[in-house]
Amino acid sequence: MPKALKITFFIAAGLVIIAIAGFYIMKANTKKHSPEDSVVFKQDSLNIEVFYNRPYKKGREIFGELVPYNEVWRTGANEATTFKTNQDIMVEGSILKAGKYTLWTIPNETSWVVIFNDKMYNWGVNFSDGKASRIKEFDALKVEVPVSKNLKTIDQFSIYFDEQFGDINMFLAWDDIVVPISIKPTKT
């Protein structure tokens, strides 16, 4: 192998190693500020699991500023949030087939659009422009839900489930906003 070709090969290999290492260092560093979490809801044979990253408020204005109104949000930080259900469910009265989805939202002052997307994405935003990496052609379900004001400030973004009197709600909560999403099993 000619000497120039060897040098080119080693430089290219070195750049690839640096790029891969840089990605993992960046990923580890961002996890410190927005740690991973999972929440699981089980009822009879229904099993729902949400994986997401939980950013902090840190004194910032969240909705309308950090998370702009009328723009797709990855619903958390870092990787796109995932939502997995083992059976068909009704979300706000519309059917969502069993499967794994990425969960996106479009926040507004009085309502949010909640989007379940069939495609899995490595990261929640494009590095080139900082916009959500969602491709709308893969949307499986879009529903609009009202926003509720919370009496206290929630410092760290949270997703949780609550079941009362047979009704299941998934809540998205951060800052002074809570977004309830109605879920019903299709099997009883």
Question: What can be said about this structure in brief?
Answer:
With 188 residues, the chain is of the alpha+beta class. The protein has 2 domains: 1-33; 35-185, no CATH class.
Question: What this model shows, in words?
Answer:
- The protein is α+β, with helices and mostly antiparallel strands.
- The protein folds into two domains: 1-33; 35-185, no CATH class.
- The chain has one helix spanning 3-33; strands at 36-43, 46-53, 81-85, 89-91, 94-96, 99-107, 111-117, 139-146, 148-164, 167-185.
- Strand 4 and strand 5 form a beta hairpin.
- It contains one helix and ten strands, in the order H-E-E-E-E-E-E-E-E-E-E.
- The termini are far apart.
Which features does this protein show?
single chain; 188 residues; alpha+beta; six-stranded antiparallel β-sheet; four-stranded antiparallel β-sheet; globular
